[in-house]
Amino acid sequence: MKLAFTHDHHNGAAEWQKRDMFDWITDIFEAPAIKLGLRCTVDIRQHVSREFQLDGWGQDVKIDQSLNLTVSAMKDDLAFQLQTGNISRAPYDLLKLQHLFQTSKIEAAALALPTRDAAAKMGSNIANAERVCKEMTAFDRVITVPILLIAFE
Q1: How far apart are CA 52 and CA 36, in angstroms?
Q2: Which end of the chain is more exposed for a tag (fewer CB within 10 A), N or C?
Q3: CATH number, domain at 105?
Q4: Distance separating alpha carbons of residues 101 and 64, to the nearest angstrom
Q5: pLDDT at residue 82 is higher than 90
Q6: In its keyword annotation, does this UniProt entry include Transmembrane (predicted)?
Q7: pLDDT (tens digit, 9 = 90+) per residue, 95-153?
Q8: Which residues contact residue 62 at a Cβ distance below 8 angstroms, ignoring those fewer than 6 apart?
């Protein structure tokens, strides 16, 4: 697995840079030992989870105590979401991140997804960064949380 590209939504990259976390979070996706293909999701999730755990992030954090909805990780005023599943889950991830932002629980977020080509290797109808970039741009007045989108392949 390697970093393919990043996309800056509402100055999300600057928020991660301001906290000196941009290189740290993008470096997580430089993991040549992880080969993308069918059934690689467990390896990706374990690797990412381990990196966040080592840095002291809370994992599978509830976005609201009355709901059984979580984001992959949170620390201070940042949230992170990893999406390696069905494309129908990606807009839901954006909604969860927007909720955290609007309730003043975070100031910025990062969302990591495979590229279109990587997603095709992983299975059918897997969320991909190119599509989510287009959707964030189309709904930029609805999804106002600063997001650093991380695309890996």
Answers
A1: 20
A2: C
A3: 3.40.91.20
A4: 12
A5: yes
A6: no
A7: 999 999 999 999 999 999 999 999 999 999 999 999 999 999 999 999 999 999 999 99
A8: 68, 69, 70
Residue whose C-alpha is closest to residue 148's, from 23, 2, 1: 23
pLDDT band at 67 (very low <50, low <70, confident <90, very high): confident
Q: What is the pLDDT, as a whole number, of residue 65? A: 85
Which regions of 17-152 does DSSP assign to beta strands (E)? 58-62, 70-75, 78-82, 108-114, 147-152
CA distances from 58 to 15, 45, 52, 70, 118 (A): 19, 15, 8, 11, 28
Q: Which two tokens stand for residue 48?
A: 């990412």
Total domains, the chain: 1
Q: What is the domain range of residue 17? A: 3-152
Percentage of the chain beyond pLDDT 90 is 96
Tell me whether strands 70-75 and 78-82 are parallel, antiparallel or unpaired: antiparallel
Q: Is the dihedral of CA 54, 51, 24, 60 positive or negative?
A: negative
Strand 147-152 and strand 108-114: the pairing is parallel
Contact criterion met (CB below 8 Å) for 97 and 132: no
Is the Cβ–Cβ distance between 152 and 118 less than 8 Å?
yes
